[in-house]
Design brief:
single chain, mainly alpha, 0% strand
Length: 61
Amino acid sequence: MSVHQRREPSAQDEAAEILRLHDGNALEALRTLIAERDAVEERLAIAVIAMGRGFTRGWRP
């Protein structure tokens, strides 16, 4: 692997890291992920309102 290539973490690695960050508490990890998902959905909704339809050639998420 060259210096410029980056290994993407596997979903299993990411899941383990999320649990580690929450001291193994799966319920708290899920609550955090749901809150983050909600925040992303809110930002997407704002972006949809802010973008003109011509900018995306009519595409809507």
